[in-house]
Hints:
By secondary structure, this protein is α+β, with helices and mostly antiparallel strands. The protein contains eight helices and 18 strands. Strand 11 and strand 12 form a beta hairpin.
Amino acid sequence: xxxxxxxxxxxxxxxxxxxxxxxxxxxxxxxxxxxxxxxxxxxxxxxxxxxxxxxxxxxxxxxxxxxxxxxxxxxxxxxxxxxxxxxxxxxxxxxxxxxxxxxxxxxxxxxxxxxxxxxxxxxxxxxxxxxxxxxxxxxxxxxxxxxxxxxxxxxxxxxxxxxxxxxxxxxxxxxxxxxxxxxxxxxxxxxxxxxxxxxxxxxxxxxxxxxxxxxxxxxxxxxxxxxxxxxxxxxxxxxxxxxxxxxxxxxxxxxxxxxxxxxxxxxxxxxxxxxxxxxxxxxxxxxxxxxxxxxxxxxxxxxxxxxxxxxxxxxxxxxxxxxxxxxxxxxxxxxxxxxxxxxxxxxxxxxxxxxxxxxxxxxxxxxxxxxxxxxxxxxxxxxxxxxxxxxxxxxxxxxxx
Length: 401
């Protein structure tokens, strides 16, 4: 696949299942407080968490940005929306809401956590950060979990608020060196994967977590309502100059997150799927006290329906049928051309979990691609490489693809 085809796929939504773009009226949709720093007339957006998210501009090269992310450092202005849960009953509310235990989460640590409905379907996935004994931020994906928290908080001494935080992700193998330069003498000796803390960036306090959406080493920088966003942006890039820091739209990030097996709520998982369907059963603790959806999950089929697929030749997309001997058995979700593997990859959700004693993994099935042509595809486990996720943990790895 040549560069022009890749750019067309990324900017025209092939990885997300759409083949066209539309113009919209922005009323009710938030723009980034950093937008004046990078806004151009030809910028293309998507809407995520009721916020505009910059995909990229026509002159951008997502492949070039992708390799800078993998080899150096990149900055992304991310629309994910943190929700603050605070009060003496905050832990009680969160234990009731989430499928995994919350009370043992240490202060200044983060934890991936799922919210389920009474029938066991996924309401939301995101990262929970504990800032104090009774104060948490839940960084949700594309949804509105704040109303879910409010509905479950009746009778509890807790407040649910919007800290008006916009997230900047600095991702890539040099991101921790950047943090040490941006916050001199502030980074703890052990600032591991899913750790968090408050840091002073040029006189302004920000929350920083060792998390991200790329499968690379990275940090996320959380602003707040009282922040001078312009000054923070300028400071980040003044420090980042020595690292060759650049900003990218979400196009290059999207390529890498699919390779890393990171799922997107609504695009890949939704209310119709249980955590087991999505391969997220490890984040469900059926031994903890009652939580919303527990009874349904106890009775649910624990077989997985979501896997990866690879196609050497087919033009991949979301919404394509996967066939077994001519019979549809699943449909593709987020998909892309992998620059690292040099093949089409993506997620497939099968119509049913593999039968007992059988397994989807390793099977060679048929993909009906965007042109309507049939091509062989192989079903694989996620992520597509770095299976043990050593890269974001800064662990030695012999082959990071």
